[in-house]
Design a protein that fits this description.
Blueprint: H1 3-64, H2 69-83, H3 88-109, H4 113-116, H5 119-154, H6 158-165
Helix pairs in contact: 1-2, 1-3, 1-5, 1-6, 2-3
Amino acid sequence: MKTWVKSLIVVIIILIIIAIPMISSYNNLVTLEQDVNVAESNIDTQLQRRSDLIPNLVNTVKGYASQEKDIFTEIADARSKLAGANNITEQANADSELSGALSRLLLVVENYPDLKSNQNFQDLSIQLEGTENRIAIARQDYNTAATTYNTKVKSFPTKIVASLFGFQEKPLYKATEGAQQVPEVNFSS
């Protein structure tokens, strides 16, 4: 066998040895990125479910508390921002704003005992509570998937493949600043 043929075989073997882990890393990154995309979609689905429930809840409360117009406006504005969010960070900010407005709405309800005993309101409240729990789980699932993906993107030698093929870190779903503070509700005005 000629020397150049042996050299060619050695080069081909080396290329195969390099290509197999690269292909494996690439496929793994694609899988992890899809997991992140599915988790983000699940957040969207649960936020949409909550957005669909809110008008019914607001209309039920409006019948009892028509003088609480500011809270209804806040909820409508926050829903609009959530619907117009273009990325996970904007979505997290709008979601936090909507959650705050809903918290204030539920505090308003405390002043209307007849409303709290209304079956329609109770049913909507239970559905909303379940949806809030689903949203929390969807956020956790997204952050878990994003963390797994981000760790892989940053890890050597996958980092090389990630940079070659344009895989970039995914942002974590974070609450906005001030989201940990309890909203202030003033009924004296």
